[in-house]
Amino acid sequence: MAKSPILLVSAFVVLSALHTQANRPNILYIYTDDQSDRTVSSYERSLPWVSTPNIDKLADSGVRFQYAYTGTWCMPSRATFLTGHLQYGVQSMRMEGQYPMSNYDPDQCPFWMSSFKEAGYTTAHIGKWHTGTDTGFGRDWDYQIVWNRPKFPKNSGAYYYDQMMSFNGGPDVMVPGYTTDNYTKWAVEYIEGKGRDEAKPWLLWLCYSATHGPFTPADRHKDTIPEDVEVPVPVDIFPPRPGKPKYVQERAGYRKGDDGKPYVQNRPGNGWEHSEGVITYQESAMGLDEGVGALIETLRRTGQLDKTLIIYTADQGFAWGQHGFQHKIAPYDANIASPFIVSYPGVVPGGKVSSTPIGGQDVVPTLFHYAGIALPWEMHGEDISPLIQNPEQKSDHAVLLTYTGREYGTDTVKNMPADGLDPNGGIAWWVSYRIHQYKYIVTLVPGEIEELYDLDKDPDELINLALDPDYSETLSKLRSAAIEELKRTDCPFVDKLPSNS
Q: Which regions of 248-288 does DSSP assign to beta strands (E)?
C-alpha cells in the first residue's frame, strides 16, 4: 500500500506522541465467534430490526471498517492472530485425534505475546482457545482463564453453558452459567486490576464463544425479537447458482418444506425455518452487545478509557442461506466478513468509516505500531494505522486470504487434496484477493472456473465477472497480484494453482 509523505508524517507524529507517554496504551482485543457484520446495526448489511447500541457507540467513538476478513474459520483465524501469518505460514500447527484436538511446536510456531511482555506489558487471555492443547500460560500469557476446546473434545460443543475452564494454569473445572456473561465478568475484573500489575500497560485478548452454533441466547434475550420481523430469503438459497463453481452449485444447506419455506438441514439448528435461525442467531449476539457496554463502562469508571486501544471483531462471519450455505469457510462476504471497529479516544478519529478492505494478518503489525514495539519477525500483513488515522483516504491496500481445510504450514502441500475439495464439508480449497471494489477467487480444483466480483455494484456476489470478456484485463491483473502476494508471503503451494492462474 503506497503511503503519501503527509500520511507518513502523520503516522510518525501519532507514534511519537504515544511513545512519549508515561504508559503505553492498554489493548483490549474483543474477539467473537462466527459473528457476521450483518449482526451489528451500524453495518450496511444488517437488517433494519437489528439493534446493537453498545457496539454502535464504540463505532461512533472510532473507526468502523466496512470490509474485514479476519479468517476463514475459527482455528486458522486465531492462528493468524497469534503468529501474524496466514494459515499456510503457521508451521507445525496440526489437527490430530478427535476433533478439535490439535497441537503445535512452540519453537516452530512462536506467538508474539512474549515481545509485549519483554516491553513491559502484562498479557492476558480470557475465553475460547482453539489452537493446540498448549494454551501458552506462563509463556505467552501472564493471566489466563481458558476454555481449552482441543484438550476436552467431549466438552468442545458447550459454547453457552457448562464449560471446562482453567484459571491461570490450574486444574480444569466445570463452570456453570451463561458463557458470554462469565467472560464479561472475568474481563471486567481484570480491567479493574485483578491478576495484574497496575503499574504496567496490559493486553487482553477476550475470546467470546458466542455467536457460534448452537446459537443459544441468554434466557433474558430469548424471544425478544418478534417472530414477524422481515427476514428476506437469499435469492440463491436454492440452485441454480449461475457462474459459481461446482461445489457451490451443488450446495444443499437448506431444504424446501411443505409450506414452501426454506429449512436448515445437516447443520446446527437442524430443522429450523430460515427466519427462525436468523432471529435466534441475532438474539445470541445481544449478550455480546451488553458485554461491550459493561467493558466500556468499566474502562470509563476506572479512568482507563482514554488510555485503551479497543478493537472489536470476530474470527469470521457466517452465512444464512446465501449461495446455499449455512456455514462459514466459503470465500463470499456472507460467509466470512466480520465486523471490525477500532476505538482509541483522543488518538483515533471518531465516527468514521473506511471502505478499504483489511485482513486479520494486518492486526498484529498494527498493535505493534500503537505499542511502539519492534516486530519480532516478518509478518504477512501491514500496519494499517495510516488507514485508522485517516479512514476516508483512498488506498491500494489489498487483502489476501486462503482456505486450506485443516492443514497448516508446509502440510498444505503435502496433504493437498487431489481434487481440491476438503474432505470435511466438501468446500474447495481457495485463494481470494480483495482490492478496491473487486474480489478475485480461484479454487484449487483442476479445471474449475475463476470468480471476480464487483462488490460496489454486486454486494451479494451473484454476478461472476470472470466469465465476462469485458473484464478480462481486470481478471488478469488481479490474478497476477494474487500470485505475487502468495510469493511474497512464501506460500508453499503457489506453484500448485490451476493452470488458468
A: 254-256, 262-264
